[in-house]
Structure formats: structure tokens, C-alpha cells
Design goal:
Structural class: alpha/beta
Helix content: 40-55%
Strand order of the largest sheet: 4-3-5-7-6
Largest sheet: 5 strands, mixed
């Protein structure tokens, strides 16, 4: 006689479990607010990219200037402005301190997601211990050298990370379903996860490395091979839907106007006549040799300027680079003799996350080598390191000790990056994020302001009268003597067809070079008729009179 299977008893939370749950909810709510407060302690963001395009691009989309101005933010004029719209709308409507707190709080949601991810992955039977461990790993995920440097800034790498980590949370909390559950529900769940990763990719294209890494990680799950393929396929469908949701409108705009949905990138493929036949990849951070690329973490960890514009220090990437291969070899060598339940985290979650991060890093080192793009990986590194240590040939007790010691050393040696900050405006004044003192312009609706030099100056444009039009004649995308760039014809036509007065905007040191560029367009800058434009984020700018060259 066969007895029916025993039914699982209902789960009743004891006192410690209820306390742990309350503590978890408290962390979910307070961690983002703590990040917002930390933003205020760090100072106001004044980074180069904010002054070059993050402030202007948001203003341009909100005020219908996309087709009115020409290249004011240099090549990033063509980047998806959706996140910039959010920041500009927030920071132009609220005092800078309030906007900074809100912006930092939104970025702090990463900590809440990291907590949910760690709680779903860690193999700790005591509820309170698991909650505390997840909290500590989440906190450390928010205290990396790159992550702290980005706090309260407009680079957006710590905003698109929300989509990456949210996708991981959805996957981690559904792993039993994904491995053996009903196919329809499993495929729907991974498609839902893909929406988050795709939305992040649509907002900032370099996040593609995470979308691909997560997609390929499904092929490593302990499930039937065909099931793995379909999980990856439906996750990919979700990625495409998310990409269309946040980036589709901008890709359609670029395709319609320039014949390239990622213009000007990959123009050697799309061959738009409005740019050179180039991939427009920033190769300035690429390693000098294949060997250096292969061992790149040993280089950039101790020479951070090889992967970024400012110094910082963080051992996370190097520790992962060393430990993940060792963990993989150990797991393969000992897989037949290890007991079930071995390791510090769920086996399927461990395999998924480590494979996803490995693929992501491999794509990063081939495609970008810019450290800011690795910040989501930096956030996930504490949990990933615990997973990797748990696969080494160590007892559970020693694995915990090694993990704690490693994480303490990493955190104790962190030196945050600083891409440029200024003191918060005095609450006694207007207290806005960007202010500029633009001198009176006699006939703004008839005036064209040429922008010279290569410095970040477009942040002052919203302070001009709205009728003024801006055309940048020198940029990292186009110059008056460019060869093979069809956009030059648009620039020359825009300038030559203007019938009103001209002005030239540049930094004071760039004024002489701007004057030479203007001459190539048949215009002469008058250095005796220049007026200053003081602003709160950078050096004082020059606004000079420009006239057509007289034809003899």
C-alpha cells in the first residue's frame, strides 16, 4: 500500500522571523532615503557631461528645440534624452538641494533591489541572519568607488542599474519555476525580467552588455537544454519590448532624420550620409595590447585613468576576475563529491549570476573599457564574491570567514571617484542647479549664437531668451574643415542662410580658436565686443559679436 505524499505544513512565522521581516521592510524604505541624504553631504554635481549635454538635452526635448538648434551638445546631442528630461524637469522646478535629495533617493533604490536579490539567493536558514547578511551586502553594493562617485550625478549608470538589478530580482525569486515549473508561467516571468533589462538598454545603449549577459546566463541554468533556450528566447523578447518602450521613440527619430537608429554610432553599418563611415567608438581607453586586455583588471585597478577621466580605487572587479575562474574550476572538479546544498547561496542563482557577470565583463572589455559602464557590476560584486567563495574547497564556516575578511578589505580600501562637484547653492537665493548671467540680447528672435571650441558650455543655453538659435561650429563630431561628414553641408547651410545678427559663445581661452573657425564660414569675430557670462558650474564664458566678412 502506497501512502500519499505528506502535505507541507503551513509556514508560521516565529518571533525572530517576524522581526526579520519588519527589519527587511525598514531597510527597503530607509536605504534609498539614506542615499538621498548622502547626496547632500557630497555636494552638487557639476560634471563635464552635465555641462555638455545632460542639462541641455532635457531642456531641448521639453521645449521643442530638437530641430531648432544644431549640435549644441556636440555628438551627445544625438543621445536618448529621456533620463535627462527627468533630471532637468526635477532640477529646474525645485531648489537644488531638494532635487539632489530626490535624485539621490531614486538612485538609492539600487540598495533596496540589492537587498531583495541577496535575500532571495543566500542560503541561510535563520531568518534574522539572512536578513542582516542581505542588508550588509546591499549596503556594500552601494559603497563602491564608482557607485559613490556617481551618487547624485547625471551620468545615469546608477539609474540604468535599476533595470539590470530588477531583472535579476525577478529571475532569482522565480528560479524553481524557471527550472521545472509550468512553461507558460516560466516564459512569462523571464519576459517580464527582460522588460527591465531592455528598458535600461533603451535609456542608455551601453547597458546592452548586461542584457546580453543575462540572456546568455539562462543557458547555464540547471534545466533541460531546450527549456534553457526558450527561457533565453523569451527573455530576449522582453528585452526588445523594454528597449522599444524607452528607446524606440528616439531610434525612430534618428532613423527618420539620419537613416541610422543609433546615429552616429555604427555608421559603418548603416552608412548614413550625415556622418563619416565610422563606428564612432571611443577607443581612447582601449588597452594597448591583447595581453593587457586579457589581464585588464590588474591594470585599471591600480591605474584608474586607463578606464576613466578621474582617479578612484576599488578592488571588486579584480577580486571577481581572480575568484570567479577559481570558483568555476573548483565547482567542476568537485561536483561529484560535494553534498547537496553546498555553498553560501542557491546553486542555480550562483551559476546564473556568475555567468551573467562573466559575459557582461567580457563584452565590456571588448566594446568599451570605460569603468562607469561597469558600475552595475560593481554593485553586484559583493553578492557575487560571496557566491564565488562559497564554491571554493572550504568548509562553510571558513567560507563565511573568508568572505567577511575579503569584503572588509575591499570596503576599507575604497576611494570614491569625483567627476566634479560644487557647494550647494545658498538657500537664501534662488538655489537652482544651473544659473547663468546672460547679458541682454537686442533682437533674440533674429539672433543666431555660434558655439566655438570643444569645452562643455551648453548648460547656459536655457538661460538665454527662448527665441535665440544655437549652432555649434566646432565639436567632437564636426568641424568646419571636416572631410567625409555629410552633416557639414547642413551646418554651412544653416549658418549661411541666416539673415539676422550673429554672436559667438565659447570659453575665454577658446575664443581665438572659435574666431578662426568662424572665418572658414565667412564670419569675423570682433574680440573688442565680447561680454562675460558668469555661471555657477564652470568658468566664465565669452559672448562675442560676429559679422559677415565683407566681400571686396
Amino acid at each position: 500500500m502506497t501512502l500519499p505524499p505528506a502535505q507541507p505544513a503551513p509556514v508560521l512565522l516565529d518571533g525572530d522571523a517576524r522581526t526579520a521581516r519588519r527589519l527587511g521592510w525598514l531597510f527597503l524604505l530607509l536605504a534609498p532615503l539614506a542615499h538621498g541624504a548622502l547626496t547632500l553631504a557630497f555636494g552638487m554635481d557639476a560634471n563635464w557631461d552635465l555641462r555638455n549635454y545632460h542639462w541641455y538635452n532635457g531642456y531641448a526635448l521639453l521645449n521643442g528645440r530638437i530641430d531648432l538648434d544644431l549640435l549644441p551638445a556636440q555628438m551627445p546631442t544625438f543621445y536618448n534624452p529621456l533620463l535627462d528630461v527627468a533630471f532637468y524637469g526635477l532640477a529646474s522646478a525645485l531648489p537644488a538641494r531638494v532635487a539632489g535629495f530626490v535624485w539621490g533617493t531614486v538612485q538609492g533604490i539600487n540598495l533596496s533591489l540589492l537587498f531583495l536579490l541577496a535575500q532571495a539567493c543566500l542560503r541561510v536558514n535563520v531568518a534574522m541572519l539572512r536578513t542582516v547578511a542581505a542588508m550588509l551586502l546591499a549596503l556594500m553594493g552601494g559603497l563602491g568607488g564608482g557607485t559613490l562617485g556617481l551618487l547624485g550625478t547625471t551620468f545615469h549608470d546608477n539609474l540604468v542599474s535599476l533595470g539590470v538589478i530588477a531583472a535579476l530580482v525577478v529571475v532569482a525569486r522565480a528560479l524553481p519555476l524557471l527550472k521545472t515549473g509550468r512553461l507558460v508561467m516560466a516564459f512569462g516571468r523571464v519576459a517580464f525580467a527582460g522588460l527591465f533589462a531592455g528598458a535600461a538598454m533603451g535609456l542608455k545603449n551601453p547597458t546592452v552588455i548586461y542584457a546580453v549577459g543575462l540572456c546568455l546566463a539562462f543557458l547555464a541554468l540547471p534545466a533541460h537544454p531546450v527549456r534553457r533556450l526558450f527561457l533565453a528566447f523569451f527573455f530576449g523578447l522582453g528585452v526588445l519590448a523594454g528597449l522599444a518602450g524607452t528607446g524606440g521613440f528616439w531610434m525612430i527619430h534618428l532613423w527618420h532624420d539620419y537613416g541610422n537608429p543609433v546615429f552616429p554610432h555604427m555608421n559603418h553599418v548603416f552608412q548614413s550620409p550625415f556622418a563619416a563611415m565610422s563606428d564612432y567608438v571611443n577607443a581612447s581607453f582601449f588597452p594597448a595590447s591583447r595581453l593587457e586586455r586579457l589581464l585588464f583588471p590588474f591594470t585599471f585597478t591600480f591605474a584608474p585613468l586607463t578606464v576613466g577621466e578621474v582617479p578612484w580605487f576599488d578592488l571588486r572587479a579584480l577580486a571577481l576576475f581572480v575568484l570567479v575562474p577559481l570558483a568555476a574550476l573548483s565547482a567542476l572538479a568537485l561536483r561529484r563529491i560535494r553534498p547537496a546544498g553546498f555553498g553560501l547561496a542557491d546553486a542555480a542563482a550562483t551559476r546564473f549570476l556568475l555567468v551573467a557577470l562573466t559575459v557582461t565583463y567580457a563584452l565590456w572589455v571588448v566594446m568599451f573599457c570605460i569603468y562607469r559602464y561597469l558600475v552595475p557590476l560593481e554593485m553586484l560584486a559583493p553578492l557575487a564574491l560571496v557566491m564565488a567563495v562559497g564554491l571554493l574547497p572550504l568548509s562553510r564556516r571558513w567560507a563565511v570567514r573568508v568572505s567577511i575578511a575579503l569584503l572588509l578589505v575591499i570596503q576599507a580600501t575604497v576611494q570614491p571617484a569625483d567627476w566634479g562637484r560644487v557647494p550647494w547653492p545658498s538657500p537664501d537665493g534662488p538655489g537652482r542647479w544651473v544659473t547663468a548671467e546672460v547679458p541682454p540680447i537686442e533682437d533674440p528672435h533674429a539672433t543666431m549664437v555660434l558655439m566655438g571650441g570643444y569645452w562643455a558650455i551648453s548648460h547656459v543655453i536655457p538661460s538665454f531668451p527662448p527665441g535665440v538659435r544655437f549652432v555649434r561650429i566646432q565639436s567632437n563630431f564636426l568641424q568646419p574643415d571636416s572631410v567625409g561628414n555629410g552633416y557639414l553641408a547642413i551646418l554651412k547651410d544653416k549658418v549661411s542662410s541666416h539673415r539676422g545678427p550673429y554672436l559667438m559663445l565659447s570659453t575665454i581661452p577658446d575664443t581665438a580658436g572659435a574666431a578662426k573657425a568662424a572665418l572658414r564660414l565667412g564670419l569675423r569675430l570682433d574680440p573688442e565686443r565680447c561680454r562675460p557670462i558668469p555661471n555657477n558650474l564652470g568658468e566664465t564664458l565669452n559672448l562675442c559679436a560676429v559679422a559677415r566678412v565683407a566681400v571686396e
